[in-house]
Amino acid sequence: MGIIKKVRTLTATALLAASFTGASFAADNIRIAFIDPLSGPFATTGESGYRTFEYAAQTLVNDKGGVLGGRMFEIVPMDNKISPKESLIQLKRAISEGIHYIVQGNSSGVANALTDAINKHNRRNPDQRIIFLNYSAVDPALTNEKCNFWHFRFDANADIKMDALTDVIAEDQDIKKVYIIGQDYSFGKAVAAAAVKFIGAKRPDIEIVGNELHPIGKVKDFTPYATKIKSSGADAVITGNWGADMVGLGKAIVEAGVDAPIFTYYGAHDGITATFADKGVDVIRVVHEGTFNPPSAEFKAFNEGFKKVNPDKDLNQPRIIGTIQMLAKAMEAAGTDDPVAVATALEGMDFTNIYGRKVHMRASDHQIIQDVNITVHTDKNIEVDADNSGYGLLTEKTVKEAGKDLPTSCEMKRPS
């Protein structure tokens, strides 16, 4: 399917879904721009996020009467083709359409471009301010040296996740050699730096036998990388790869016969779980805010409803649910959709997520603090599977309030 045809198909699908769910497009809707890939190599990941936002907004806000006396949330898809330049074009489009809320998550390179542009725009245009709700871009810089009042992150950052992963690695005395591989951009570099830092602190005896980056979204055959991993004698692999790059790397590792646990940030869903299948059992571990198995009753019911509408997709980023719920709560608390008032209500907010666990939006840097789980790929005790494969993620370890004690260099400047 060509890119143009695919985008048209996605748009038609979204509109059709909206007609069935009863979504309205009234002038007084609160419009939220979804700026993420809906074409190109990462379209599958982007579409999953878009469908989750649509379903969460419809079922958790609109079907319950909306916010602020009946105003509905409307998710507006804007394809950025995973390009920072295209993302800025879509941001200008959102501004021209009077949209005050942006959601984005795929690629920290894109997030860095957006947060800079939004911060500058808001300084220059106090009557057109925008809030950036980051649901998945985890470069630590975004809530450290590049933090700003308009950016909120609803996912654990790369350092928080690596801190949790390396706790597990440090406890395994059979791991003596580790190979680090990732995508060559800000997030991949952050993952590699965090791995070296935390392994060095917790298990200085572990040897880093490989630490390399590959072009993001451009590698068609990961066999040469998998061959190097195998020949290194690594006892474990760490990767932050996501989307098509995780599928490609995972397939190559499986085919190369690498006999080592693989510690990942995004090693499940979007075809990844199906790719590993039986060979991923007790091998793939994913650090995640979600508790897929065992699921809470609320999450299980929400997932079943989502799958009825989207049988070909997984609810693989449940933090999106919290993003929508916390935004709605902030608007109700503020009594308005004015961005300054909503941002003020969001920072410092305590909330109970779909798993019944407490989360906190830290006011000092707008980094969410929540429990983080280490999950393992398995076919045992699975109630919520991935890729309709019969395999899924089972929680092995939970880190309570992960990252709570990690320092931040953020010097938050608030509007006067």
Automatic annotation (TrEMBL):
Supply the alphabetized keyword list: Amino-acid transport, Signal, Transport
Q: Which residues form the signal peptide?
A: 1-26
Q: Coiled coil where?
A: none
The source's superkingdom equals: Bacteria
Boundaries of every Leucine-binding protein domain copy: 30-375
**Transport is among the record's keywords:** yes
Tell me, what is an example of a GO biological process annotation in this record?
Answer: amino acid transport
Question: Record's PANTHER family?
Answer: LEUCINE-SPECIFIC-BINDING PROTEIN, PERIPLASMIC BINDING PROTEIN OF ABC TRANSPORTER FOR NATURAL AMINO ACIDS
Provide the family line: Belongs to the leucine-binding protein family.
Q: Which protein is depicted? A: Branched-chain amino acid ABC transporter substrate-binding protein
